[in-house]
Design goal:
Layout: H1 14-38, H2 57-73, E1 79-81, E2 96-103, H3 105-110, E3 116-123, E4 126-134, E5 139-144, E6 148-151, E7 154-156, E8 167-170, H4 181-190, E9 194-197, H5 201-210, E10 215-218, H6 223-236, E11 239-241, E12 255-258, H7 260-277
Parallel strand pairs: 1-2, 8-9, 8-10
Antiparallel strand pairs: 2-3, 3-4, 4-5, 5-6, 6-7, 10-12, 11-12
Helix pairs in contact: 1-2, 4-7, 5-6
């Protein structure tokens, strides 16, 4: 995971941002069409693999298409994908593209309507441009630094009341529940809040940006899992913190994305759960 500077995010050339948004939007629309045409239609990865590690032909097809287009349009900007062997992006890259072709592959394979395509242009301060395709809801969510968030072209901005949502999202790790997850769920329930584990880190964070849930808590993640959705969240007015309560757009130590009014309370549940488990 790339360590980001704690300094405020810097402005980026408006021309680059505009072109990046346009290209990313086209790729998201392409991905949405492919996912909807193939989801749940007998695509089965190696049965010996964990569902958390599945890679389908659709993942590979969308990765190749995304790489081809981005390399042609932005030849000087490296592209990092979930299914490649590149690992996390080097810290000395001025910009990088990060893509998750199908976030929620187990859901996609089963035909469950909860998966996404995520693409983000990132610099050392965090996402510059983020686009998420939500195929089953026919939605393309897009954001750019300082330009706000849009859902199918309509502006989205969190309001104060959206911090009162009775739902928080989280996701399991590749090996199962994260340390303290049971305690976190119990604490939230006592406070009258339900915790949902739906199978897509990207869409979990996007729900906060859209105002559907109060917060999303991720014990661990890769940059490509969430960078597109974090861009949405930041531009919609959400708070982004690590498990210590420190702000960074892509924290190294866990991720809490929350409506401003809910951030402190959900953070306290998370921290308390981690202390109990330890």
């Amino acid at each position: 995971m790339t360590v980001l500077s704690s300094r405020p995010a810097q402005p980026v050339d408006p021309g680059l941002v505009s072109i990046a948004l346009e290209v990313a939007g086209r790729l998201a629309n392409d991905a949405s069409d492919v996912i909807m045409a193939t989801a749940g239609r007998g695509v089965r990865p190696d049965s010996g693999e964990s569902p958390f590690d599945w890679v389908t032909d659709t993942d590979r097809t969308l990765e190749r298409h995304t790489r081809r287009v981005l390399t042609a349009e932005f030849p000087s900007i490296p592209v990092f994908c979930e299914n490649s062997d590149d690992g996390d992006a080097p810290s000395d890259s001025e910009f990088r593209w990060v893509v998750d072709p199908v976030d929620g592959t187990a859901n996609y394979t089963a035909g469950m309507p909860w998966c996404a395509y995520s693409l983000a242009l990132v610099d050392r301060w965090g996402p510059v441009v983020g686009v998420v395709a939500d195929p089953y809801r026919s939605q393309i969510y897009a954001a750019a630094r300082g330009r706000g968030m849009r859902a199918n072209g309509a502006p989205v901005r969190l309001t104060e009341r959206q911090g009162d949502s009775l739902v928080v999202c989280t996701e399991m790790t590749r090996t199962g529940p994260w340390p303290g997850m049971g305690e976190f769920i119990s604490t939230a329930a006592i406070a009258g809040t339900g915790v949902r584990v739906l199978g897509s880190k990207c869409l979990a964070v996007a729900q906060v940006a859209l105002g559907h849930v109060a917060a999303a808590v991720l014990h661990g993640y890769h940059e490509w899992d969430v960078a597109g959705a974090v861009s949405l969240a930041v531009e919609s007015g959400a708070v982004v913190l690590d498990r210590r309560g420190e702000g960074a757009q892509l924290p190294v130590d866990g991720l809490l994305v929350a409506a401003p009014e809910a951030a402190d309370e959900v953070l306290s549940w998370w921290q308390s759960a981690l202390q109990v488990d330890s």
